[in-house]
Amino acid sequence: MRQRLNLSQQQDDAEINMTPMLDVVFIMLIFFIVSTSFVRESGIDVNRPSAQSSDTQSKNAVLVAITADDEVWLDRKPLDLRMVRPAIERLRSDQAEINVVVQADEASSTGQLVKLIDQLRLAKVQYTVATQVGE
Fold it and tell me: Which of 33, 55, 69, 73 has its CA 20 to 30 A from that of 110?
């Protein structure tokens, strides 16, 4: 009888406590969520003009695109040019430091680009015009 008592006691001691492992997994999950940077993409591909003075952009950025048909895209949705400033200001209220990258198609009109840059200046955000590295 004594042997049976020892076997049941050994089986109880052999259980693995999962609580510390789950705590570590949740802490890692929270760390990755907090440290992840989110980039708002324009939602379309544009044929950017090339420039020999092109530089790489390392900061988190909001991408605004102008298509060859002079449509403005932000966050994968077409947007009226007059709505760019309120949309950027709303994004700026979520994140204090945002940088806007304008992706203008080389077939888009210069007038549309100037109007977009004017909206960005009125929203008081830093902006960059994207180009391809020239040859």
Answer: 55
